[in-house]
Amino acid sequence: MAVKKEKHKMPEQNPKERINNFDEVPLGYDEETAIAEAQRCLHCPRPTCVEGCPVNIDIPDFIQEIAEGRFDKAIGVLKKKTNLPSVCGRVCPYEEQCEGSCILSKAGEPVAIGRLERFAADHARKKGEKKPITPQPTGKKVAIIGSGPAGLTCAGDLAKMGHKAVIFEALHAPGGVLMYGIPEFRLPKDIVNYEVDYIKKLGVEINYDVIVGKTIDVEELMEEYDAVFIGTGAGLPHFLNIPGENLAGICSANEFLTRANMMKAYDFPHFDTPIKIGKKVATFGAGNVAMDCARTALRLGAEKSYIIYRRSEKEMPARNEEIEHAKEEGIIFKLLTNPKRFISDDKGSVKQVECVKMKLGEPDKSGRRKPLPIKDSEFTMDIDTAIIAVGQSPNPLVPKTIDGLKIGKIGNIKIDENGQTNILGLFAGGDIATGAATVILSMGAGKKAAKAIDKYLKRE
Ligand code: FAD
Ligand code: SF4
């Protein structure tokens, strides 16, 4: 029988309705659709999809279980390699990873691996999972700094090896960007909490409101624990560095999303932490973070929500799915446009942004075509809120408190291929080592480091 060339469509909330709520946009496959999609898999003798997955999930195996209706077994296969399948099934850039390497993508659309992962994880969550079996304790203790995907994965894998993993998290909730950055309509927070609870059931302990580098030093942790892993992410926002950027009504994407997500500004008045949002909101940047900001602003009541980006659509770094969703929701894209300065009203709040039109030149160091200003093309736009989403750097607090630690050019912690820093017993991984990347790459780094820590703990 010929294989259907396209993926089965994902049912979604209607764009006109969803811009008025924070509920999840994609609704998930039902059982019948999941089985039909799973049956598209060819079970290749050399599954290139697995090579494309940074945590090497046995993709054909879990798909086979779904194809034959054994959904409980599918989650078992997934959990051998990932403790965050509901998260990965929602936010992973599959198109660049497993699906990008799927043989079917050569002559049509790949198997919808991400949607199937989400289906298996959601099915298990709704049905209820058995308490995981934990191994005999080894008596070794590891301190993990940060509870983002890197820290959670490293801690979960160490617990599965019998080591005691204790996480120290600066915020009052776990998950890192999964909790404070990615909005509810892309990644519901009860799902993040559920997956964190599973990791806790493996025996991982989480201490909240501990800012390592201030409340406690890495040196103290190194004395008390047998090894330390740093997974503090890339939470230092970049700014445009143009005149007027300190006016009222202008903030970083980090601040905006933390207020909207973690402090639940979207659920005012149930949560007494509202956020001031104007009628005309401009988000600067075109990555996933920018799309999240522009779409959140719309849901919080903006009448016009703009994405302002200096290159063209082809160079936008956001995932295609996020760009499509943003377009469907009515986000206005002002491309080949660069801000020059913000203009104040008489009370010190932003009222306009002056921009210049751009054209594309030859590729620059990033491999993308360099944006160049077009002479005398300046124009102004009326805005009352500006959100700056032009990138983040590794969080400097922890690295700068460690004497002799090797730091890279972007403030990242330098590690070898196993996550080992230049200091014995001190490991790192995720965005703090690579700069802003992806959930699955951070998870992959957490896994590698857990293996290396295990080896280190067992040394003679
Ligand atoms: P983080 O997730 O940043 O976690 C670091 C943790 O360390 C945080 O909880 C922080 O509070 C804690 N911490 C920091 N300093 C200290 C300290 N001194 N003491 C104790 N704890 C500390 N990736 C995708 O794959 N798909 C997406 O769709 C996607 N969308 C994104 C949307 C947004 C808005 C953002 C910001 C990022 C997005 N990313 C996406 C990127 C992805 O979320 C990150 O690459 C990933 O979360 C990095 O994981 P991490 O564990 O290294 O760090
Ligand atoms: Fe199935 Fe595609 Fe992987 Fe082949 S490459 S096993 S078709 S998911």
Shape: globular
Tally of separate domains: 3
Using the 3D structure, state the CATH architecture of the largest domain.
Answer: 3-Layer(bba) Sandwich
What structural class is derived from the secondary structure elements? alpha/beta
Helical proportion, percent range: 25-40%
Largest sheet: 5 strands, parallel
What is the rounded Rg?
A: 23 Å
How far apart the termini lie comes to 57 Å
Low-pLDDT sequence parts: none
Tally of helical runs = 17
**Strand content bin:** 15-25%
User: Major sheet: order of its strands?
Assistant: 3-2-1-4-16
**What is the fourth-level CATH superfamily of the largest domain?**
FAD/NAD(P)-binding domain
Bound molecules: flavin-adenine dinucleotide, iron/sulfur cluster
Tell me the number of strands.
16
> Which CATH C-level class of the largest domain is it?
Alpha Beta
Keywords:
5-stranded parallel sheet; binds flavin-adenine dinucleotide; 460 residues; FAD/NAD(P)-binding domain; alpha/beta
